[in-house]
Amino acid sequence: MSIAVDHADRVAETTDSRGRLEVRGVSKTFTVNGAPIAALNDVSLTVAPGEFVALLGPSGCGKSTLLRLIAGLDRDYTGRIVQDGNAVTGTSLERGIVFQEPRLFPWATVRQNIALGLKNAPISEAGKREAVAAHIALVGLDGFAEAYPHQLSGGMAQRAAIARGLVNRPRLLLLDEPFGALDALTRARLQTELQRIWAHEKITMILVTHDVDEAVFLGDRVVVLAPRPGRISRIFDVAAARPRARSDDALIRLRNEVLRTLEHDGADDGKAGQSNRSGA
Amino acid sequence: MASETTATSSAAIGLRRGLVLPLLLLVAWEAGSHSGLVNPQFLPPLEKVGQVAWQELANGELPYALAASLKRDLLGFALGAGFGTVVGLLLGLSRIADRIFTTWFNGLKQIALLAWIPLISLWFGFDEAAKVVFIALAAAIPVILNTVEGVRSTSTKLREVGEVFRFSPLQLVWSLYLPAATPSMLTGLHLGLIYAWLATIGAEYFMAAGPGIGGLIISGRERFEMALVMLGIVVVGLVGFVVDRSATWVEHRLVRWRTA
Amino acid sequence: MSETILETDLGPARAFAARGWREWSGNGLVSGAIMRAKAAAWLLIVPAIALPVWIIGNERGWLAEQILPRPADVLHTLNEMLASGELAQHAGISLLRVLLGFAVGAGAGLVLGAAMGLSRRVDDHVRPLFTAIAQVPALAWIPLAMLLLGIGETLKIVVIAKAAFVPVAMNTSAGIANVPRALVEVGETFRFTPLQMLRHVVLPGAVPPIFTGLRYGLTHAWIALVSVELLASSEGLGYLLVWGRQMFWLDTVLVAMLVIGVIGFVSDWLLAGVEARLQRWRTDGV
Fold first, then answer.
1. Before A243, cis peptide (omega within 30)?
2. Lower CB count within 10 Å: N or C terminus of chain A?
3. Within chain B, which residues score under 70 in pLDDT?
4. What global pTM score does this model have?
């Protein structure tokens, strides 16, 4: 609750238009055993402030690679990545990331883990304490603040990781298959939570996933990537109103269409087809 | 961070960097011993060491000493490994044996290995028997520890499989505990080999009768022949290296199922 | 003992010791007391059989005094040496040597290990020479060191320092180098400065292996002390062993072994306790 107030102030002082991301003609090549392998080929994408974009594709399509480039963890690529007018040259507190594995520091409690995210944030110690407590509440981990990571279930650990990714109030939150390792029930619950948090915080989010239902349920747009080399194959707009229900007919129809696209991509896999765009 | 160098060139850089210090050291050594800055009795020139090595090889002293050391090393290791495996299995499999003996074993283990030498030499003299007993003791300790650990760490899941198939106790040991404990037991044997070699040198230092590399080093010290002492140390290191590498190789071959 | 082993190789030994620590510092007063009493009862079986055999064997003469002196004699010698302060003096000298040598060796090991773990360049330069030196056990260096340094205190400190140096340097460099890349990346996304990275990511992750290295270092230092005192000393516990051996005083030899064992046991037990506490976040609380 206190976040709403806190956050509203900070959003007010920095206009809502921030959190815009532009990816222009990005290509990335790995060298494996001396042979070059194209992981991403000429990927371009614009993400509007406050938008929720789902990057969907089979394994090996380069979606996680793209996310690492956006995060600034990997700077060896060609093309341009620009956030709010500034070229991405490294990691930034403006961009948070939640990894597939929670990557919590095993020697630190939940509270300490989240607080580490604020190490270099320009706010007072009292403000930090408040923000940490508020984020523990936000992800529903009250009562587990002093728990060590090994004492948490997979779902709880991932909640803590999401809180740590959010605590800096980044303009852009990158999520790299954050629910991939969780059971179906926990995953569904966290997806709903994430939708709530996104609606509440108005942060731009980019979610990498290979789960079609997840992409369609959460995304404003679903960007389908095709493998070898990784490229954008098609972009779907998800028109359904929020908060969404999984049983929504429009969502189910769209899901089937996305699945067909994925199957098609798989069928002519290898032919670097034209990237065709269409709305749904 | 930005650009990855290829594997081959970084290995080459590593090799080049690794050679700098040893080469500098050798140059300083040669310069020191030839210039007279350092008493050559303390630091004999490299060629002197090489000459002594050649001499000891040619007159058969070195091979003779090495063969004697290796023989007692392996004999002691075989005895210690056999004894250690039996004791380890007993402690690992039997709750009663574990309760009665494990704490005492842990206590005895704390006595620094070389502190056993005076007692062993009082009991067995300075001869071959005493040395072999000491080497066996050194080899047995890690074998016991790792065998116990291997047997105990057999997972409950596997044990339940055995129960479902109604294995007899003997079948349990033979087809479940032993295979599950093998990697750990091999680690124990590997460590036992290393300890045994160390104990061989120790035994030859303190029970200085009969041929051996340790005896060679000690006599070199008594006669103030630095070159001979250095030669002995290099041989000790080389044998340890070869033993360790071979054991690693054997270990990897035997537990291939673990990684493959 | 071996100079070429890392943390993992002695895993079982550590698990053994850690279990002991947990049993003894166990919680639950009554059930703990009962469990301890039971464990003690089992423990008494060995002395209950061995002591009578020893005593009767000595009396009947089929266990010669040159093989094993009477338990009463050993106790008497222990008492006498305790009362005269002789034992305390020898043990004190040995302990002082170990502490000095360990401080020098472990300090150097921490510095070099940290440099090797943090910098690829340093590691490339130092690793081959370090491995070569580590390959030769401290025991084998003693005769060479005796020629160079004589048989004074310097010799003891240098030999003990070398023995402690190797495992400390190895485990420190491995501990630092093995801090998971995944966690370093988390630090990068929070724009940690190099100092913050060291303080919040590298050190917490590396402390347990570094401590393990310190523990091995102390064990190795203790073994090296006994070796060097056996070969060249006129005081200390190792000297007591040699002296007893030369005089055929088995009781003195046994007393010296007992003290060496007790000191080894206590120090290892204490360090195992500290180690278990340092790694609390790895498993459920001790």
1. yes
2. N
3. 1-9, 155-156, 256-260
4. 0.78
Query: How long is chain B?
Result: 260
Q: What is the largest CA-CA distance in chain A?
A: 57
What's the CA gap between C237 and C240, in Å, rounded?
5
Upstream peptide bond of A122 is cis (omega within 30 degrees of 0) = no
User: How confident is the prediction for chain A on average, in pLDDT?
Assistant: 81
Q: Is residue A20 part of a domain?
A: yes
Tokens at A126, concatenated:
């009292």
| Cα torsion C141, C147, C153, C158: sign | negative
Please compute, for residue A22, the number of CA atoms within 13 A of its CA located in the half-sphere on the CB side. 10
φ, ψ of residue A199 to 5 degrees: the values are -65, -35
Q: Which of B2, B3, B6 sits opposite A34 (nearest CB)?
A: B6
* Burial (0-12, 13-18, 19+ Cβ within 10 Å), B188: buried
Question: Counting beta carbons within 10 angstroms of the beta carbon of residue A10, is it exposed (0 to 12), middle (13 to 18) or buried (19 or more)?
Answer: exposed
Q: What's the pLDDT at C6?
A: 39
Query: Tens digits of per-residue pLDDT, B147-191?
Result: 998 888 876 677 777 777 777 778 888 878 888 888 889 999 999
CATH code at A231?
A: 3.40.50.300
Task: For chain C, positions 255-284, list CB contacts with chain A under 8 A.
Answer: 280-284
Which domains occur in chain B, in start order? 46-259 (1.10.3720.10)
Contact assessment for residue B82 and residue B136, using Cβ atoms and an 8 Å cutoff: no
d(CA B247, CA B243): 6
> Which one, of B67, B145, B58, B155, lies nearest residue B108 by Cα?
B145
Looking at the complex, does the CB of residue B169 fall below 8 Å from at least one CB of chain C? no
Residue C178 near residue C118, CB atoms below 8 Å: no
- CA gap A221, B5 in Å, rounded: 38
Please state the rounded mean pLDDT for residues C5-16. 41
In chain C, residues with a C-beta closer than 8 Å to the C-beta of A108 are 200, 204, 281
Greater model confidence, A268 or C36: C36
Residue A277 counted as domain residue:
no
| C-alpha dihedral, A207 to A210 to A212 to A218, nearest 10° | -10
Query: Which CA distances in Å does C79 have to C83, C85, C203, C253?
Result: 6, 10, 47, 14
For an interface test with B, which of C8, C35, C38, C42 has the most B Cβ atoms less than 10 Å from its Cβ?
C42
Kindly indicate the confidence band of residue A168, based on its pLDDT and cuts at 50, 70 and 90.
Answer: confident
* Nearest CA distance, B171 vs chain C (angstrom): 25
The residue range of the domain holding A208 is: 2-267
Q: Are C120 and C179 in contact (CB under 8 A)?
A: no
Cα angle: A268, vertex A270, A275; to 5 degrees: 70
DSSP string, B103-167: HHHHHHHTS-GGGHHHHHHHHHTTSHHHHHHHHHHHHHHHHHHHHHHHHHTS-HHHHHHHHHTT-
The total domain count for chain A is: 1
For domain C66-282, the question of CATH label 1.10.3720.10 is answered with yes
CA distances (Å), B79 to each of B43, B86, B132, B192, C98, in order? 40, 11, 8, 11, 33
